[in-house]
């Protein structure tokens, strides 16, 4: 059963950072991977950024962030699949590519690894958008489907040394998703379509179908 944390984001980030540092030291390896999963709008990206910051500044551990969103299929591919309107659903990501990259990162055999980064303003992934050095000791990966139990996503969880899931009440999730798209200047009608027909159903699927993590964080409010 996962340990539960019901606190503010900063306190939750401190709890995760402490657990990651303890796991890193106990395993005695040169690198470990931490996976933070949750629905879109759950706050997992902000949480992951704070964990990396705390590990670096307070724990003296070299840490880096690796978002899974860089493995979105390109819009041209989604158009061919007839799935452009459902971008963000589990079948619109390159699960195998992400798994191979996680394995490569964990093996830590290369002096530097370039990873893709999703540019939300352009809605595309930029190849080589971030470099992760061999000296990096903890990599924090965040994404919606890191703990998904369906094939082939279920092959990801064993790669991680510590897993976290971010829980958020549905009403809070809906409000955050609406605010996110409002920031891009979309009409109320388009926001409602994106949230109710795509983002929120994806979020509910993630919350109901993810494997049990090592640690749960309640990020409501």
From TrEMBL:
<dbReference type="InterPro" id="IPR006083">
    <property type="entry name" value="PRK/URK"/>
</dbReference>
<dbReference type="InterPro" id="IPR027417">
    <property type="entry name" value="P-loop_NTPase"/>
</dbReference>
<dbReference type="Pfam" id="PF00485">
    <property type="entry name" value="PRK"/>
</dbReference>
<keyword id="KW-0378">Hydrolase</keyword>
<protein>
    <submittedName>
        <fullName>Nucleoside triphosphate hydrolase</fullName>
    </submittedName>
</protein>
<dbReference type="GO" id="GO:0016787">
    <property type="term" value="F:hydrolase activity"/>
</dbReference>
<feature type="domain" description="Phosphoribulokinase/uridine kinase">
    <location>
        <begin position="34"/>
        <end position="178"/>
    </location>
</feature>
